[in-house]
Amino acid sequence: MNNMKYVGKETPRIDALPKATGTIKYMSDLVFPEMLYARILRSKYPHAKILKIDSSKAKALPGVVAVVTHEDVPGVNGFGIVVPDMPVLCKDKVRYIGDTVAAVAAESEEIAERALSLIDVEYEPLPLVEDPEKALLENSPKVHENGNIHLHTEIKRGDPSEALKKADLLVEHTFYTGRQEHAFLETEGGVAFIGADGNLNVYAGSQYPQRDQLQLARCLSINPRKIRVVSYPVGGAFGGKDELTIQPIIGLLALKTKRPVKITLSREESIISYWKRHPYILKYKVGFKKDGTLVVVDATLIEDKGAYSSLGGPVLNLAVEHACGPYRVDNVHIDGYAVFTNNGVAGACRGFGAPQTSFAIETIFDIAAEKLGIDPIALRKKNALRNGDLTPIGNKLTTSIGTIKVLESIEKSALWKNRNKLKLADPKKQWLKRGVGIALTYQGTGLGVGLPDYGGAILSMDEDGGFTVGVGTVDYGQGIGTSYAQFVAETMHCPIEKIKVILGDSLLSADSGPTSASRGVYTGGKASVIAASKMKEELLSKASRVMSLPCESLEFGNECLLEKNKPNHYISFKSLADKFIEEENKLPMTEGYFLVPTAEIKIEKAEGLPHHIFAFSAHLAYVEVNTLTGEVRVIEGAEAVDGGVVVNRQGYEAQVEGGFVMGMGYGLMEDLIIKNGIVKNPNFSTYIIPSIKDAPYNIETIPVVNPEDTGPFCAKGIAETVMVATAPAITNAIHDAVGVRLFKIPATPEAVYMAMKRKAID
Amino acid sequence: MNNMKYVGKETPRIDALPKATGTIKYMSDLVFPEMLYARILRSKYPHAKILKIDSSKAKALPGVVAVVTHEDVPGVNGFGIVVPDMPVLCKDKVRYIGDTVAAVAAESEEIAERALSLIDVEYEPLPLVEDPEKALLENSPKVHENGNIHLHTEIKRGDPSEALKKADLLVEHTFYTGRQEHAFLETEGGVAFIGADGNLNVYAGSQYPQRDQLQLARCLSINPRKIRVVSYPVGGAFGGKDELTIQPIIGLLALKTKRPVKITLSREESIISYWKRHPYILKYKVGFKKDGTLVVVDATLIEDKGAYSSLGGPVLNLAVEHACGPYRVDNVHIDGYAVFTNNGVAGACRGFGAPQTSFAIETIFDIAAEKLGIDPIALRKKNALRNGDLTPIGNKLTTSIGTIKVLESIEKSALWKNRNKLKLADPKKQWLKRGVGIALTYQGTGLGVGLPDYGGAILSMDEDGGFTVGVGTVDYGQGIGTSYAQFVAETMHCPIEKIKVILGDSLLSADSGPTSASRGVYTGGKASVIAASKMKEELLSKASRVMSLPCESLEFGNECLLEKNKPNHYISFKSLADKFIEEENKLPMTEGYFLVPTAEIKIEKAEGLPHHIFAFSAHLAYVEVNTLTGEVRVIEGAEAVDGGVVVNRQGYEAQVEGGFVMGMGYGLMEDLIIKNGIVKNPNFSTYIIPSIKDAPYNIETIPVVNPEDTGPFCAKGIAETVMVATAPAITNAIHDAVGVRLFKIPATPEAVYMAMKRKAID
């Protein structure tokens, strides 16, 4: 890609300046005339019947403009991407402590807050469903009438029970993973108002404006065309804003009051009320031959779904698909359950089921390598999926497969080569033990077979000869806006400064599916390239006529079209724009649509499986364990990542570094504790995420070029894979340092300390 | 007990001679005039709807006298000791492959057999419930309408989750135990006929004639007084004849045909159709302090109930009670599920839930001893329950507690003292490795709190001056008939030859509860002693009048009453009998009833818990493992057993030896394999039990005297405890020999071989 000007180069983010200078307006910065403030009354109990709601006292409070309950919801009183089972406002039952019972719009936040305390709700508490394993049983109390099993996905290949018997080495463990909070900087919030055209406008940071629009239309009983959703800018999401949050409430209040209504959640309300990463229980039995060949994986995955569906089903399916890691194995039995409980709600979160299974399978690979006396990279190479292989769930791989390449790259890293030297403890601090750990992972790009998976882009020429591209996905920090600008600039031969990008607007940008599943660059990017190619045809045809030259004798130059071999005979884009206005009274506009290619098979009863395109990464962690306290410091990290190609080195590094640190939080610190349905650590003084002081002093990014022909400029996406295997790399490093295995993450100091204490006894 | 003549002495079995000479008549030896032969049509599918049954062709076959289906059952079409959910003849659904659909009575077995093939049954197969863990889930197909959870028992003490976190050593494993066949010598069979008095007589070996009588009355809609059940002699039972089997069918056919009807099951039909030991899945987490103190047991027990209830609930409760072994522990969480499946049927079997949990907890103690570097006996002593302690489920021990005594006794055995020397392999056969293993256990005697638990005996004087004692329990090989004779002879000062014993007859023997739960000697024995004491009063009073002497000056001598200090002035029992007939025209008869003392607390929702009286045993196994094949030979065994006192040394040794070998089968060989609802090894050529060639050349019996004041002559019972811990003693010995742990029994050669192979890799 050396002949390129933008793609593959270090390109400053197009949103860097407005973000750094604070001129970009987030939803909490928006102020409208006559604006009201909303507050939400949430359930007092994690599981209870609602016997009575009396809001008369609240309504009578001066300054209160509206109080709404379930009776005020004009449409379907439920939302949810897959199953609309989460009430906008609860009617007869609450299912978790953040469930919404009533909402107030008032002249100030203080009045709204006071009004909440005047709403009388009578509850009858119900038995709690807390333990997802017990929730599965037929005698458990039920969170939903139809039972606690939201989804059961079972996949079987070969003869796993026979293979388990015959394996030379059997590794059998139960793993537990924590409930991770997305910890985006901007909490859920937004403003809804009725525009001059009478349409409902909902401005709230989210990941898919067109889907929000449809969900809101259903709840509010409005034609979707009469709703505009603006979901960009958004101050971080990581999957936590894929599902609706506060939008239906402010939409409802705006319709009711005919005034703009704004809400911004406090951090505590945000943590208590909305989506988290699903905690998993993972029961694995994995068999190897003496020579290291992986022969069987038998796993039961239990997902604590919390109270409502949202994306818990697809998350489970992805976990099932990724349960064996990126390895060849012929005997497979994966049995997954997504189970309703009263433990808050969980939904999409970066990695989408893969970080949970990666922790299990990569720990098992580390154990196997140790027991079989095989180098951990060699063991992974031996079993790694390659092009042409069948995946564990039986899907033939025909796209760019980077397992071996990322392993070979990581093997050459300084961290791996010097690991024996790096292990040596500081002689003056013998209680600090060091170790290096590795983990390999992959991540399906996009939504998988059977789900509509497409990219869309609208490209219009501007009066100045530049272009505006509108894509429905959003840039919540990962940098896809910049990537789209790069793709369009590169394709159009136009300086990137003259490319404008409109994201996340149901009116002005094309439906490009959700900003999730590592698919933003791949889908919206490809659509942008297609729209740009069409634009080039329009320009070429216009130039041909204006210059009275056949198309064949023209070519694109810098911001112009020129006669081949006659660089001085050209027409600039600006002049072409003038011509368009002069002759047609409008500027050209093209659309690009792109259907994501899918796998050839479809796994029955497992919507979205299998995937067809994958990103790959190998993670290294270099840790220091304080044997006196159990504290683990990650000194250094490295990741070799196959995302097809590097679109923007800056963004690539930022993704890897951010992913590594998020994975570090997942592996060492983060777990939202819910006991008796109550969140015990609902703020950042108790729910600890890695700070800059915790981050390793260096995270080496090793890009592995492995072009994916179907992608824009051969790019895939790396948003999730870069985070997925950091936790097992760290726990494997802990084992390398002090010889103990962690089967539960986060590996808190207490857990590591107790494991060392027990190890001393073993 | 040195001053005794019979109790505590080696006494030949009273049934030795008739059994050895073949003069005793078992049910299959009975032939009546005009007798018909019955055969049963069993289900073709393990789970199916019955759409139609057409028996017209069978009825038309010459020689067929009756064909019965569900339509012919006059009473409740169901039986079962706890819940009558097993149909006499299935109506609309079959739930396992042995379920009864129709039955034929014909002039010969051949005709009956042919008739079965002429019965047309139309089925609609239903999805199978095979895996008891999956059967628990709410989305599982259901074996019974009310769901697959037959019983859920949960017991919690202290703070187990906190204790698990703080334990210095955590041992966590999942254990699996096999489905053991009782393998009694005499298969299920019997004869039913209508007697001259018009009453229904059912002669079929079983464990509790009075309960059979009531169950039959309910099914056949007859006053129980019009039914006589004779359940003795019985050629072995081990719990497998506690529940009804073929009795309702032959009873029904006898009523229908007014002729005697006989059935004797083939071995295959016996194995396929009736009760087995429940397979268990046992998930244990056990914590110890560094010094060996047991601090917490957290266990989930899953019982594969098979298709019908029978005694699966009580078995589960006993498993829950015994889940921690005979050890003190303050933090306990035991969660037990008895789960319906289509895997045959399971019910009572010697040990009744304890062998399953003993395998788990005694393996864990062995692991802990190894890891903590503590001698395995010392570790058990440290934690052993003692008098005054609370049991794991919170019951205060106030009866005779033998843990320390049996451990001290086994510690002095040659096998234990010389174990290091015994471990040495034959230098010429280095592939044969040897080891010694220990396990400790206990077993509740009787039915536990809240269930009617009593002994009863009728004692009558005979014309010859001897006595006849009638007890409803049966002697199915364990020797209780001889014990009762000993107790009566000893109490009455009468030679044992003159004591007759009537067992298992609903008409002639007193209701003494079931012959199960190690309770035969204790309950019926105590009742016999009470009846004998009353008889002595009758004799004393009669002698006093006959001899014109005050009672105070008389005492009992050998078969007589005599004047104290005047040995020549006496009246013999024979003369007393004559006097009774002369004066009263009848011989004296007394009854003894005895209510089993129970624990002071009652565990809510856990019927039968806790127990009050316990037997204890420590088991040793000395094994040789063939490292080339995985075969395990048990060279020698030893058991130190606290059964209160030894009633009969011969019977005691036979119980210990028999129990050890049955436990050996359980630990090494026996598992009835059911796949897709079909029994894969339904005969003794494929279901292998230990033969005399497999039995150890010596099993040392070490009786530990620990008198239980409430028992007859201070005896308890040893029937189950002697079998319970043999399997873990053997698997612990295998570990001692070759260093591998078995978490699943039976430890077949394949399993041991694979474990060694894997160990070599570890």
Please explain how this structure is put together.
The structure is a homodimer of 762-residue chains. The first copy, chain A, contains 21 helices and 28 strands. By secondary structure, chain A is of the alpha+beta class. In chain A, helix 10 (354-372) packs parallel to helix 20 (726-738) and helix 15 packs parallel to helix 16. The model of chain A has no long low-confidence stretch (mean pLDDT 96). In chain A, the strands form seven sheets. Chain A has a seven-stranded mixed β-sheet, with helices on both faces. In chain A, strands 7-15-14-13-8 form a five-stranded mixed β-sheet, with helices on both faces. Chain A has a four-stranded mixed β-sheet with strand order 16-24-25-28. In chain A, 29% of the residues lie in helices and 25% in strands. In chain A, strand 10 (200-204), helix 6 and strand 11 (227-230) form a beta-alpha-beta unit. Chain A binds chain B through residues 136-140, 147-149, 152, 165-170, 172, 290, 337, 371-372, 750, 754, 757-758, 761-762, and chain B through 136-140, 147-149, 152, 165-170, 174, 290, 337, 371-372, 750, 754, 757-758, 761-762.
